[in-house]
Amino acid sequence: MNAFLQSCKKKLLLHGIDNAKKELEWFIEKNSLFTKDEILLNKIKINDNLKTKILNFVDRRSNLEPFQYILESSTFYGRDFYVNPSVLIPRPETETIIYQLKKSTQTFNHALDIGTGSGNLAITLSLEKIVKKVTAIDKSYKALKVAKENARQYNTKNIKFVQQDFLDDKIINKYDLIVSNPPYISIDEYMNLNKQVKNHEPTIALTDFHDGLLFYKKIEENLNTVLCDNGALFLEIGLEKQKDKINKIFNKYCTTWFKDLNGDYRVVKIKKN
């Protein structure tokens, strides 16, 4: 790593970016014609244009702007999705929903994705041929624009995107699969989030401005009318301490829990008894 990049790395480290060297390498790879091997072997020449881009990147990351927003890209289930500050950055933990659905080998007719954000779940359900068609809803018009852009990128034409506030609007159709990564952070926990998340990711995708359970309670209230008798509901939860609370909310139904790659309970599958 040359002297210029070393100084950039040092600045990032001083601002708490522990993965500074790797982030610089990834940024250069995405914003230049250099290959990963050329970057790793330090066989690159940084022209003025690339230098300006790198300095801009370092300034933005030093202010703890998420790496994915700067690159306008985030990976989910092996695919790159366009993201901007209007949507939550897809997390590997959410892939647990896809892993478990793929294990079941069951194909569903019509899925509902509640709070689709970037569309990563809905689009992956389609591309992995888990469902035949998807209705993806979100309260945010800006989020839906991002989701539609990702759907165009992957040419998924079996997804209908609808602007809808799940907490206030009624779902009128029935689905044999429902998935959701709802805003599950309580307002108290939200106030103590790290700055990289709190200052940059959309608040309405993180917290329900209450106890973090409003969406689960709303889903439970409407489950008999929106889920087919042989259907399945897959929900992501936050901290593991939510597990008992979620079990109490859905105590009339059959629940099966799954751990993420970190060994934490992350996803619950809910079926009618």
Output the keywords.
41% helix, 20% strand, seven-stranded mixed sheet, alpha/beta
Structural commentary:
With 273 residues, the chain is an alpha/beta fold. Helices cover 41% and strands 20% of the residues. Helix 1 (3-14) packs parallel to helix 4 (48-62). The longest helix has 15 residues, at 48-62.
Helix and strand layout, with pairings?
Blueprint: H1 3-14, H2 20-30, H3 36-40, H4 48-62, H5 67-71, E1 74-76, E2 79-81, H6 95-104, E3 108-114, H7 120-127, E4 131-138, H8 141-153, E5 159-163, E6 175-180, H9 187-191, H10 195-198, H11 203-206, H12 214-226, E7 227-236, H13 242-249, E8 254-259, E9 265-271
Parallel strand pairs: 3-4, 3-6, 4-5, 6-7
Antiparallel strand pairs: 1-2, 7-9, 8-9
Helix pairs in contact: 1-4
Please summarize what this structure is.
The chain is an alpha/beta fold and 273 residues long.
The mean pLDDT is 93
* Count of distinct strands: 9
Percent helix among the residues? 40-55%
CA radius of gyration: 20 Å
